[in-house]
Fold:
Amino acid sequence: MNRRTVRFMPDNRVVQVPEGMDLHRAAAAAGLELKSVCGGEGTCGRCAVKILEGKPEVGGGNLSPRAKKQGLVLACRTLVTDDLVVEIPADSRLADHQLADGSTGRVLAENTYDRLAEFGLSPLCRKVKVKLPEPSVTENGSDLSRLLLGLKEQGVEGDITISLDALRALPETLRQGSWDATVTLAEISCRETGPRLEIVRVEAGHSEAPPYGLAIDIGTTSNVVHLVDMSTGTVLERRGTYNRQAMYGDDVITRIIHATEEKGGLNDLRKAVVETLNGLIESALLARDLDQEEIVAAVVAGNTTMAHLFLGLWPGYIRLEPYIPAATSFPVIRAAEAGLQINPVAPVLTLPAVASYVGGDIVSGMLAIDVEEHEEVTLFIDIGTNGEMVLGNKDWMITCSCSMGPCFEGGGITFGMRAVPGAIQRLEIEPGTYEVKVTTIGGARPRGIAGTGLIDALAKLRSVGIIDRAGAFHRVPNRRWRTGAEGPEFVLVWAEDTEQGNQDIVISESDVKNLLRAKGAAYAAIRTMLQTMELPPEAISRVFIAGAFGSYLNLRDSIEIGLLPDLPPERYSFIGNSSVKGSRLALMSRVARDKAETLAHQMTNLELSEGNTFMEEFVSALFLPHTDLSLFPSVAAVPSPDANAAGAAGTAAASNEAAVGAGEAQSQAQTQVNNENEGQHS
Amino acid sequence: MNRRTVRFMPDNRVVQVPEGMDLHRAAAAAGLELKSVCGGEGTCGRCAVKILEGKPEVGGGNLSPRAKKQGLVLACRTLVTDDLVVEIPADSRLADHQLADGSTGRVLAENTYDRLAEFGLSPLCRKVKVKLPEPSVTENGSDLSRLLLGLKEQGVEGDITISLDALRALPETLRQGSWDATVTLAEISCRETGPRLEIVRVEAGHSEAPPYGLAIDIGTTSNVVHLVDMSTGTVLERRGTYNRQAMYGDDVITRIIHATEEKGGLNDLRKAVVETLNGLIESALLARDLDQEEIVAAVVAGNTTMAHLFLGLWPGYIRLEPYIPAATSFPVIRAAEAGLQINPVAPVLTLPAVASYVGGDIVSGMLAIDVEEHEEVTLFIDIGTNGEMVLGNKDWMITCSCSMGPCFEGGGITFGMRAVPGAIQRLEIEPGTYEVKVTTIGGARPRGIAGTGLIDALAKLRSVGIIDRAGAFHRVPNRRWRTGAEGPEFVLVWAEDTEQGNQDIVISESDVKNLLRAKGAAYAAIRTMLQTMELPPEAISRVFIAGAFGSYLNLRDSIEIGLLPDLPPERYSFIGNSSVKGSRLALMSRVARDKAETLAHQMTNLELSEGNTFMEEFVSALFLPHTDLSLFPSVAAVPSPDANAAGAAGTAAASNEAAVGAGEAQSQAQTQVNNENEGQHS
Structure:
């Protein structure tokens, strides 16, 4: 097969690829990751690149007229049939994630806490120092039996196995340390028979170094690794980045399709996430000057699909009714089996899931908070591509998952983007003048709008009267209001003020409709859980909002658009990446490990739209904030902009508008339903 | 580095090797295995080859003048510095082993039996058929939880783990079988908590095929694999061949030296034995048209060094005082870790050892017999390069190991050879005429003398008066008696009657002395055990002789030379390869697996020459049959040939001779002791 050379600019990275490979893959082969929401189907328009030299075979796909005019082509639809020089615009590139390391800008410490003290220290691996008698003609037991006797003297008994690696090194290790040794013991839980111990590693002499472990969160979008001192539970290093699986699609459904329909697809995805993690691990180890050998345990939390892909389990039936995962409890495997570049025999524990769409990340999050300890009802929400929620108290817990669509992660919105530098995170619109003030992540020149910025935009567009309660645009006499290629749109940032400099950043009516569907789904899910338990929203005493997205959420705006229930702000806590927090707890405590299994079994999974009111709730929630204003008393109390504009008559108009909007929303919901039937959680 | 081409004849096999590699390795690289007793040190003279073309660098070494005259060179001392054509004589080649498959020509079935009925069927792996309900929206548990429920319905409960391989395949397997499945469950013993179950494999539908397992004996010389139907315990195929480790030396000591002193040596040896086993496995599977996947368990028995080398454990301290193995109980590993080409997650159980020189092969042999069930005292002997013995009854068991030297395996004897076709197995010498009648293995033309033939020779040379009780040659007026290069020798076969046709097969005085030391060591070990327990030889009610060598032993001759105690023949049973028999029992029964651990702990290891009478016993046993004739009443009762020849005076002469001989033996013993101090069990 002929090979062609492709040079990617501005990185100036060169790769040789077989003729006929698409440019998306070629970039991946060069170590450059392009965006992809559609998984290379040519439909998301995210991987646009510019051909600077050479003549490839260009296959079309969904590219905006603007992009076409700029001479861009879609990398996934462009085949290498010539030597090429290709420019990757910043927009098409996966960038570093601002919050991906699991630390957050705003952790409300007063409302969250570390449950480790409550659970007690009993880490997955611990070190035991032994002093062994020197062998002699009369004391001539094997090295291993000598070691086991030494452990027994330290109070370690029971069924102790030893990894082949540790046993292979044992004779030299014991002699090197003159019969002083430090044994790293892993404790593997067995539900019936109690924990089983394995000797993972033996060091010569008495080592003062603690055993190190990893708490890992595998998100669909971001992966996070925390390096933990297992003698104390202290997090030493935090690392995060995008999940490299993104090159195969942005959401779990496109990834499952790649895994199950492409030859070797499952392994592609398994490798992509493992490589992502290994990159993070390497960086953390470098910072602390640690060897792979010293990392002797890992706990992984991820949604059910991520857990499947990480372990190489067939995820195909997660996507198909009745949505059956291969497993919800996962075997403890060795790092070498997982492909993690740590001590090859380190146990790797994957936290159990509840169901296909409520995964170990949620179970992990529940470890981090204390729902099961309280009489009062707690709501836990993890917002990402999917919204997963748990409602419960010490007596019951129900959980559900709803597709939020990719809006809040930057997908499906004209200028949507992830929460990376240059993304608009907050915005203000001045009533009357409609002048816009934006705040971007990192204070960079604006490049697009992050999820939190979109929530702000929705709330502000509504409060200044540009959109009505159903999300329809009202013409306002301002140059920012205009009719674009896809209908009415509002200019948030003029082209000359943007990073790119060549186009205005706008939000269109269709963007608004997508956002309404996303927030509507989330609220409908919460309401459905409440109604299943016959509880009013006020019954919720505490709301924990997890996820990097949650960490930057504007609470007031989120309530005003009807994304979150209208509760006093003091009931809300933003807990950041609770998935990695729970992983750490499981790494550090047997109680947490056992509790994870118990929690996974205790939570009742509510399949939305199966014998419940979700569809009705969804339709009702496609308004700002909701059809039923009594659910949002604090929002309803504020005079509506329409009322301001139209005086007393405005109220009736608003009601009419609501009625019209309801019909409109109904048909939109219908579309959503049809989509959902194809792949419920997309 | 320059590479050279070597063509080996008559195989006509060509290999390219780096310049400077020795011919022994070059032959191995060509898949041809040459003999080696010394491990490539140039001292054993076994790997002689003929250079037909080219000029290698010849390094000398211990080669007989005869071989030199024939133009032979030692492969291990000859470096490839030119393109070569090399002939490998049959004598220098490792040949197929007659009895290596563990079946024997003479199994005294009336004295041995299959303990499986006693132990009961509870194999290491069993199959369970399950019928699972089809998943639905309301029954939407994971595939794994569905499977575990199905197993519970079949009465299988407790801590059940699943191998990652099996879990990866589970979703497709269950659907392919329309929710009927056959689960292969492995039962891993845990001493404290009882057995732990692992799902090794899941088949679609209800499979009628049994689970297959392997019973493996790793001998220093020969490896044996039995393919077992684990539903019944039936042995389906038997395979055996030489352990390819032989290319690194014939005995455990030279192999330990290679493993510990050569770079990568341990891995060389590990690979050599694993490759040997894989060859046998492949052949057995081909015969039954089975896939690797279907072999779901293996039990391995071998001496302690063999177990270490198989598992890649550091064997260095086995050889050095105080002789400490890395382990005597070995972790259960997966076939993939071991490198065995069967189902990669199949559990591989290595039977426990007692000490450095009493290994899992002996424990395995003890499983096959029932010493621990009887009041009466039983002696168990496994004769090979080392002699390992157990003496005991239901209340006590002692065990020891003595170096027999390589005599009985064909080493250290001028015309010694292994028990392969052409080896003299039996011989008769006509009194007076001294005419010799030999019987060879396979009825082939004689090529050398097997161990059993050497025992015959010793007995017969003594009975016709050619050697005296101390092993010294008496000149007899016959052309077969002559003085060779190394002293007196007796011609067993004339050159024209041999396979090679170019030299007489002789037995020399130094051969006889070597044989005396070997048989003396074995008998001294038995006597030392007896004396430790203050028992006379007659106290032994049963003797079980294990090993391929034992199977062809001439019992009467063995008693006459004083190798075995002078007991009535009905007390002796030849049980063949008891090591592979015990492996099968462990494969088939939990009782046997647990008993193996118990037995290994019950046996008291007697270090010979440590606080016991071994050295005195050894010196006394360097006679035919022994210094103390009262120990061999049945031998003493037969008139001695010296008495025949010399009449009444002969008795006194014999006594004198015995006295002289005793002094001589003493100094020989001293030599032996010195050798032993270097590497006790060589």
In short: The two ends of chain A are 38 Å apart (CA to CA).
